[in-house]
Design brief:
Radius of gyration: 20 Å
Number of strands: 5
CATH class of the largest domain: Alpha Beta
CATH topology of the largest domain: Rossmann fold
Shape: elongated
Number of helices: 10
Strand order of the largest sheet: 2-3-4-1-5
Low-confidence stretches: 212-216
């Protein structure tokens, strides 16, 4: 069985996942039979080994892949083949935030899955921008930034929103220091006229995404 969670309502997703666990996992076996993986951290070998692992004291295991749209290409190709003949002992949950119209992986795998849709956030703001930065997706982050600017959001509000989002995330002090340094440099470039606001913000986004992995 393969489930495809689509949307950004994390609370409702947690409720649905709890129902799946109650359906497939006997009480007291969850710690042995539940794996939650994050797409940005998965390599193909890890994915294959996780799916091949046998359940313990239970007929089924559950494997959840968060942000599955961000899987590496070799993992996507493996899952496309796997979906045609999934392992009977595994319940796989592919959790994605949204579908890009041209996302070939999702378009090809959805027909092998049980799709459950959740509320998707339509309004773009600094929190949406920060999410794409945290996922280390500069292309989508720049797209969100450009849309926010088109909608008339002021640069200082975008910077303030990013800082507020970081404070709420309880980021590690070292990472927070790095983020604030980039943010203050951006603010200075805008106020002194060194760069146009749009260019300064784009530079900020690229710098924040340049760490190579999501912030936690």
């Amino acid at each position: 069985m393969i489930y495809l969670f689509i949307g950004e309502d994390s609370l409702s997703k947690d409720v649905q996942l709890k129902k799946i666990k109650q359906e497939y996992l006997a009480k007291g076996t969850e710690q042995f039979n539940l794996d939650v993986l994050y797409a940005k951290e998965i390599i193909l070998k890890t994915l294959q080994e996780t799916l091949l692992r046998l359940p313990a004291n239970n007929p089924k295991r559950i494997v959840v892949i968060k942000d599955a749209e961000s899987l590496k290409e070799d993992s996507k190709e493996f899952l496309l083949k796997y979906a045609k003949s999934p392992y009977k002992q595994v319940v796989l949950v592919l959790d994605i935030s949204h579908i890009e119209k041209r996302d070939d992986f999702i378009n090809r795998i959805y027909k092998f899955t049980k799709i459950i849709r959740f509320k998707e956030t339509r309004r773009l703001d600094a929190f949406t921008l920060n999410r794409q930065i945290d996922l280390n997706r500069p292309d989508l982050a720049l797209r969100v930034l450009n849309q926010i600017l088109k909608e008339g959001e002021r640069p200082e509000r975008i910077l303030g929103g990013l800082r507020y989002a970081w404070e709420r995330s309880a980021a590690h002090p070292v990472e927070m220091k790095k983020r604030l340094k980039f943010l203050l440099n951006c603010d200075l470039e805008i106020k002194t006229g060194k760069l146009k606001p749009a260019f300064a913000l784009e530079k900020l986004v690229i710098s924040l995404c340049g760490f190579g992995k999501p912030f936690h």
